[in-house]
Design a protein that fits this description.
- The structure is a single chain.
- The protein is mainly α.
- The longest helix is centred in the last third of the chain and has 56 residues, at 172-227.
- 78% of the residues lie in helices and 0% in strands.
C-alpha cells in the first residue's frame, strides 16, 4: 500500500473537517442539492468528454495508487543483476524459464534468451514506453478534467442559489437555504478539485515517470547482459539510475 498517498488524503480531509467542527456544526456543510449539482454534474461532464470505458479505466487507476506499493529503482536494478547471475551461471537460454508478473521483464528475458540484437530490444522497449504513456495519459487527462469541471459546477450551483435567493427576497425564511446552496456548491467543487482530483492526476503522472525509469533500467540491463553478463559489470552500469547513497553491490 502507498502510505504517503493515503496519509496525505487523510491528513488533508482531517484538517478541513477539523476546521469545520471547531467553527460550528458539521451539518451546516451538508447540502444534498449542492452534492447533486457538483458530483452529478462533474460525472456527467466527464462522461461526455471521454468514452465510458476510459472513465472507468481512469477510476480504476486512481484506486490502484492507494493499493500498489512504490517500487524503488534499486529493486529493479537488483532484479536485473539476478537475471545476469542466472545467465552467467546457467546460460542465456535459462532466462526463458524465469517466472515474473512483469510482462516487460518477461519479454526482455525472452529476447535475451534468443540473443536478440540490442537494437531490437531498444525498439521493443521504446514501443512499450510509448504504449504505456498513452494508457496512463488517459487516466491523467480524466482526473485533470474532473479537477476542472468540479469548481465550474460549484459556480453553477452558486448561481442557482443566488437566483433562488433573489427571487424570494419577500420570504426571509427562504434566504438561508438558498444561500447555503450558493456557498456549499463552491466549497464542494474546490475541495474535490484541489484535495482529490488534482493530487490523483499528479500521482498518476509521477507513477508514469517511475515506470518509464523502470523500463529504461530493464532495457539497459538487458543490453548489458547481452554485451557482458558479468553481474558486477551489469550492476556498475545500472547503478547510475539510483542515488549514490543506495549504491552497494552485495554479492
Amino acid at each position: 500500500m502507498d502510505i504517503s498517498t493515503l496519509l496525505g488524503l487523510v491528513v488533508g480531509l482531517a484538517m478541513v473537517f477539523g476546521a469545520i467542527f471547531l467553527g460550528g456544526s458539521f451539518m451546516d456543510f451538508v447540502n444534498v442539492p449542492s452534492i447533486m449539482i457538483v458530483v452529478g454534474g462533474t460525472l456527467a461532464a466527464i462522461s461526455v468528454a471521454f468514452p465510458f470505458e476510459e472513465v472507468i479505466q481512469a477510476f480504476y487507476a486512481g484506486v490502484k495508487i492507494f493499493a500498489s506499493r512504490k517500487v524503488r529503482p534499486r529493486e529493479v536494478v537488483d532484479i536485473m543483476v539476478k537475471v545476469a547471475e542466472i545467465s552467467r551461471r546457467e546460460g542465456l537460454l535459462a532466462l526463458e524459464n524465469i517466472q515474473t508478473e512483469n510482462a516487460v521483464l518477461k519479454k526482455s528475458c525472452q529476447l535475451i534468451a534468443d540473443n536478440a540484437d540490442p537494437a531490437l530490444i531498444r525498439d521493443t522497449l521504446r514501443i512499450e514506453i510509448g504504449a504505456m504513456k498513452r494508457r496512463h495519459k488517459i487516466g491523467q487527462d480524466v482526473f485533470k478534467g474532473l479537477a476542472a469541471y468540479a469548481p465550474s459546477f460549484g459556480m453553477i450551483g452558486t448561481l442557482i442559489g443566488l437566483v433562488q435567493m433573489l427571487t424570494r427576497l419577500d420570504d426571509p425564511s427562504s434566504l438561508g437555504p438558498a444561500m447555503a446552496v450558493a456557498l456549499t456548491t463552491t466549497f464542494y467543487g474546490i475541495i474535490l478539485s484541489t484535495l482529490i482530483f488534482l493530487p490523483i492526476a499528479g500521482k498518476l503522472y509521477a507513477r508514469t515517470q517511475q515506470e518509464i525509469l523502470h523500463l529504461e533500467i530493464i532495457f539497459e540491463g538487458a543490453k548489458s547482459i547481452l554485451e557482458n553478463n558479468n553481474p558486477r559489470l551489469v550492476y556498475e552500469k545500472l547503478s547510475s539510475f539510483i542515488a549514490p547513497k543506495e549504491r552497494k553491490y552485495e554479492r
